[in-house]
Write a structure and sequence with these properties.
64 residues; mainly alpha; 0% strand; 6 helices
Length: 64
């Protein structure tokens, strides 16, 4: 049984596929989130969780 390529199983977001993503956007600047000046992906919880994989550490933080 051959494994499928990862891109057939987990399709990257369009910005990753196009190579237009910004590396800095992968780490939220919480001071900008608090000030209300962060990009929409960080200000809007629905958008944030659409793009974010919930790690065990994040799950524990959200649970507490």
């Amino acid at each position: 049984m051959a494994l499928k390529p990862w891109r057939e199983i987990a399709v990257p977001h369009e910005d990753v596929l196009k190579g237009t993503f910004q590396q800095a956007e992968f780490a939220a600047d919480l001071s900008r989130v608090h000030a209300g000046t962060a990009t929409g992906e960080y200000q809007n919880p629905a958008l944030f969780f659409q793009r974010t994989f919930i790690t065990e550490g994040m799950r524990l933080l959200l649970d507490s």
